[in-house]
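Below is a complete specimen:
___
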Amino acid sequence: MAKGKGSIFFCQECGYESVKWLGQCPTCKAWNSFVEEPVLGKKTGNHKMTRGIEIEPVCLSKISMEKEERLDTKIKELNRVLGGGIVSGSLVLVGGDPGIGKSTLLLQVCRNLAEEKKVLYISGEESLKQIKLRADRVGKFSDNLLLLCETNLNSIQSAIEKVSPDVVIIDSIQTMYNEEVASAPGSVSQVRETTGILMQIAKGMGIAIFIVGHVTKEGVVAGPRVLEHMVDTVLYFEGDRHASYRILRGVKNRFGSTNEIGVFEMRENGLEEVENPSEYMLNGKPKGASGSVVTCAMEGTRPLLLEIQALVCRTNFGIPRRTTAGTDYNRVNLLMAVLEKRMGFQLGDCDAYVNITGGMKMNEPSMDLGIVLALISSYKDKAIPDNAIIFGEVGLSGEVRGVNMAEQRILEAQKMGFEICVLPKVTKEGIRQKTQMQLIGVENLREAVKWVLGGK
């Protein structure tokens, strides 16, 4: 049933507008995602074509390319994810679960930047004393850091224009509200209009603005999906709040590469960088244990050595159990089907458990060969050599397909002391750089089993 002129319906996933409620969004196909929001009566009547300042188009060849000046956060892991530092005039969205460390990380960034730049930290969730308590735990701060507890966007805009800082932190976007929008803070209209005004401030005044966003139970930033399209960079802070390690992942970046990650460890005095994640991921790896394989995955330009653990045992029930942690459940089932069909392993009456140690979540196809050999190792109770690293994609016919950036993976493994590398044969033929490691190229699973486990 259509509502009156004073309200409209928004899709919470993509921001699609409709004059009536719809069960499914025609744009993103999400079900039951429409919510009712009041329409701005004054603003909707003023959308008329007005003659403004005439601007002439510019030829592409006449545009001068100068490398943008970046602000050094003095946190290497954060600089990596941002693409080299903070770009002036950029709008960065930082999302993550409650208590994961978003505010702590940004407060540490403020401490480093305040040594040379003017920083304004605006909080809508904590009082000044609460921020002071957290700041005392992080370290000493310069007087260039200014704090403001406010949720009114008009007051915030006036404060930014008065102070004219180099960097602004908004914690969080769901608590801010615009008086011209007749809806509650955190609603679709408020989040969209507030972000639009902050974007105009960032671009118009050349101020880098960080926005903290809450996440839903599905792990995505709460509010309309258009929020992620409006900002320049989207960062996700991942990890278990009860564990010590955190992962900062870049999923969108207009000023650098995407899918870069930064690894941090939560300690009493705040977050500390983990400059060698591979060493941490392999810490505590058992010696001579069956079902344990080391593989190398790529996160952006960074190679990460990971330990894959598999446990295969006879089931006590009619239906075997499959459990995965850190990797795709359906992918593991697919690889087990390949083992049964192409290799003749009878896994239909076995329980199978696959785990990526260290709390990492990886779905890269290059991990296929490591998962398969870990399953075989556990099934036969025969250990894979501890000095071997394995990577490659496995097809449905049992073939081992090539992967990209193989040289970076081999160099990382060599740096960590590995001596043998089992990889796709086609990838081995394309390697031009000399290495001290023994490279074993395999074309299919049978060759991989022969080289690593000594045959079936």
Remarks:
- The longest strand covers residues 302-314.
- The chain has a mean pLDDT of 86.
- Residues 188-205 form the longest helix (18 residues).
